[in-house]
Amino acid sequence: MKFRVATMLSAWALVLLPLAVQAEPAQEFVLQNGMKVVVKEDRRAPTVAHMVWYKVGSMDETNGTTGVAHVLEHMMFKGTKTLKPGEFSQRVAALGGRENAFTSKDYTAYYQQIEKSKLEKVMALEADRMANLVLDKEEFAKEIRVVMEERRWRTDDQAIPRVYEAMNASAFFAHPYRHPIVGWMSDLQSMTVDDAKAWYQHWYAPNNATLVVTGDVDAKAVHALAEKYYGRLARKTLQVTRPQTEPPQTGIRRLTVHAPAENPYVVLAFKAPTLRNVERDDDVHALDVLAAVLDGYDNARLNAKLVRTDKLANSVGAGYSSIARGPVLFLLDGSPSRGTTTEQLEGLLRAEVERIAKEGVSEEELKRVKTQLIAGQIYKRDSIFGQAMEIGVMETTGLSHRDIDRIIDKLRAVTAQQVQSVAQRYFKDESLTVATLVPLPLSEKKPPPASLRH
What we know:
The protein is α+β, with helices and mostly antiparallel strands. The chain is built from 16 helices and eleven strands. The protein has two domains: 23-229, 2-Layer Sandwich (Cytochrome Bc1 Complex, Chain A, domain 1), CATH 3.30.830.10; 253-442, CATH 3.30.830.10. It has helices spanning 7-22, 68-75, 87-94, 119-131, 137-156, 159-171, 185-190, 193-203, 219-229, 282-295, 301-309, 342-359, 363-379, 384-396, 404-412, 416-425; strands at residues 27-30, 36-41, 47-54, 98-103, 108-115, 209-215, 253-260, 265-272, 313-320, 328-336, 432-440. A six-stranded mixed β-sheet has the order 1-2-6-3-5-4, sandwiched between helices. Helix 2 packs across helix 5, helix 2 (68-75) crosses helix 8 and helix 12 crosses helix 16. One of its GO terms (biological process) is proteolysis.
């Protein structure tokens, strides 16, 4: 996660923060069948974002069926008892809206953006496929080929995605985050329509879903519509999954990926804490600020020194996203310039963190960085869809939409001493996985299939 925002935003961030905090709060309801409904009124434009988030993602899969969460996401557009394959999307388009879906490690979400008077119609469509999906064997056979082609083009034939896939498989031994969201190819090849049916029957239930509606709406009216369309759906007994706890790492893990690419590349992944309690997890907020110190704006430390001044790298970065259901990583990455090796760049990246661990950051730099970071957090809310995304992510990862503003408060309160402290404690060899890309000639790279060219 990179926190790059325009200079204008940083100048106004602290001025606008009180206004952001004073904005109309989201309202929450729970239907009798256990479905949570969160509504955020925002009347700046006559549009609405309607999203259904299922608390199930690739981390809930088991060996042999990796990728099934993503495959089912595709199949959700293939018809219900009353809709033909593709008709869902056609109806949303006829209403003047746009729609899509996405699968992550932690959740699967479906959304429509629509003119406010059409909300009831898309809600009826979404509730229909929550309960009445038809999983046809022939449609599945066609769609699984699409997913396999997607995997080939977006991962197998792309150098950097291959590096990250291998890095995750090495950084996590036991936790299912080691599996790619799209699934391993062998699992896709052996997957059947019955695997998708079982996933749908086990997880797609109102009591495993959160409805998020943002935009030009009345919360009480949305509640009534939710009761009408989702409230009549039966709750299910959800499948119980056993925890898969990642064992402590005891030393550096290294791996190398050989793939067609223009430049070498290296990524360093350190085990880091996940946000569980906004009030108590102060290290998480300090690590957010540290990531911004390193790579939060155009002239942040990594880019200023390694790219602009020393010219030892073509690109560098830092990333940390603490909001997840499972364990998370703090990433340092970069592509060395000519004359610099990936081994040297690895040391240079670590040296910049070590410099903060030894010398700390000045109050002036800290203030500038936090202003940029907070500006990025606030301006995500300028979009109706962005607000719905923020609420949905929080709710499906074990936090609450009520924590959103409090996170900003906690970021503002981070001290220079806290930033120095986390730099000292979380970047040890025993928590590190290093993945290196060794480029092969680009002539070995295959062109994308016609169906995936844009």
